[in-house]
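H-2 class II histocompatibility antigen, E-S beta chain-like
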Amino acid sequence: NQLLVLCSVLVPDGFRNCQVNLCAFNSTELLDIQFISSYIYNKIEYVRFDSNVGKFIGYTEFGVKNAEQWNKDPSRIAMMRAQKETYCLHNIGVDYPNVLTKSVIPTVTLHSRTPPAGHHPSMLVCSVYDFYPKTINVGWLRDGQEVTSDVTTTDEMEDGDWYYQIHSTLEYTPRPGERISCRVEHASLKEPLIIDWDPSMPKSERNKLIIGASGMVLGLILSLAGYIYYKTKPRGQNQNLNRTRT
């Protein structure tokens, strides 16, 4: 289901009074649209109009009294029933082709993480960013076979700019020569996006190895220089001693 929401807020004397108009729909056809107008006071909904019911419904003592009074007003009921077409159908017709049918291809990154103590020795994280619409499926493959255990996936999280992100982790025990992949299915993709995990050493680790190797080479050079100095120093001292005696 898709939703269009408009919220109007009034704050008299510190008390928050809010009216929320909502359009729920499965298509752009009028029969597939539901208009709901909720009246909220201090975060409590006390009365609403539902186009599927065709009248106001009260949820608190104050709301029930208002619903009874408003339902007796034919002009008010007619106006609210018309909102399904004049408000919802109009806005859905504008937003659906321009926004709601658009899609944005996600960005996927795959990285390793140290797992919690007592768990599997390895953990991979598949992070999916900047995709739209919200619905997405993220899974794992080991040698082409779907993984159903030791997988944890977050809910889709809003970025606040129409985009979403989601993260999935896989805890596993490595097997020699295996191929582990993150699979992403989304409306923006013609076919599932599969990212293979590259177990080669990260750049930071390679830098550590280079620094360590350089240190070892430098140590060998210094050791060799010390050895040469040790071997040549006594010979020079003996020559000076012989010259002094002569």
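thats it. The mean pLDDT is 80. The first strand starts at residue 2 and ends at 10. bye
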